[in-house]
Design a protein that fits this description.
single chain; about 240 residues; alpha+beta; 13-stranded antiparallel beta sheet; 13 strands; about 15% helix
Length: about 240
């Protein structure tokens, strides 16, 4: 009898883990598609200054992404390009294309609380972590799965652990906590302002809040998004970095 109970418990835990991965995948697919175009504003809030950056973004998942800065005027035309695991910046003032080495993937992007890896999605949370549903909680009026994500031993990822709150019905990711390898909370992501955009109901306002800098955060606001646009790999080229508008 004990053997049967052990087998049943083991089987149940495997099914539960598989379910957690599918929930994470559904949440990712809600805000992503094979290809997309978006118009976004990013606001960087510090204790003594605030700065807003407008941008356009194109993506061809999972390997290609391009971000074009539209404002402020001093940064207009700056482009970040990802092709598979390689990333470049086009700096129009210097007329230079600069390749970002792997050692700089964790550096701040445009002075924000997002780093290069956050923006270009070099790592895959769905595939690089083992996921477990550890409970259910209400968050901002939504009943959510609470999922713990632990990196796989072979995964080259930054975080030691993640906790995600994903709505049970819509599969919207409303909150993520990022922990380092010593189990310290480093930053928190929050998604809100739920709206229909691009034919989907999604969070259109994001916040990334660093724990060690009270009063500071970076926000993302989506103003327009189109899913499954007509684009090809050739669009995501160093040459096109200098021509895209």
């Amino acid at each position: 009898m004990k053997q049967i109970i052990f087998i049943l418990l083991t089987y149940s835990s495997i099914i539960y883990a598989q379910g957690a991965k599918e929930i994470m995948r559904a949440a990712e697919e809600l805000i992503k598609s094979k290809s997309s175009y978006a118009e976004i504003s990013m606001t960087i809030i510090k204790t003594d200054w605030t700065r807003t950056i407008g941008m356009k973004s194109w993506a061809l998942e999972p390997d290609y992404a391009l971000f074009y800065i539209t404002e402020p005027a001093r940064d207009k035309g700056t482009v970040t390009l990802k092709r598979k695991k390689e990333v470049w910046n086009w700096i129009p003032a210097a007329q230079k294309v600069i390749k970002i080495p792997p050692s700089m993937m964790l550096q701040s992007w445009m002075g924000s609380d997002f780093n290069n890896d956050d923006l270009v999605k070099e790592s895959s949370v769905v595939n690089d972590y083992e996921h477990t549903v550890i409970g259910e909680e209400n968050f901002n009026g939504y009943l959510c799965y609470k999922i713990e994500s632990i990196p796989k031993p072979e995964a080259g990822v930054v975080w030691g652990k993640l906790y995600s709150w994903i709505t049970k019905k819509e599969k919207m990711q409303l909150k993520v906590e990022f922990y380092d390898e010593d189990d310290f909370l480093i930053k928190t992501y929050l998604g809100s302002e739920i709206k229909e955009m691009g034919g989907r109901v999604i969070p259109t306002h994001w916040e990334m809040i660093p724990v060690d800098r009270p009063g500071e955060k970076t926000t993302f606001d989506y103003h327009k998004i189109k899913f499954n646009i007509d684009t090809r790999e050739e669009f995501f080229s160093e040459r096109n970095m200098k021509r895209v508008r």
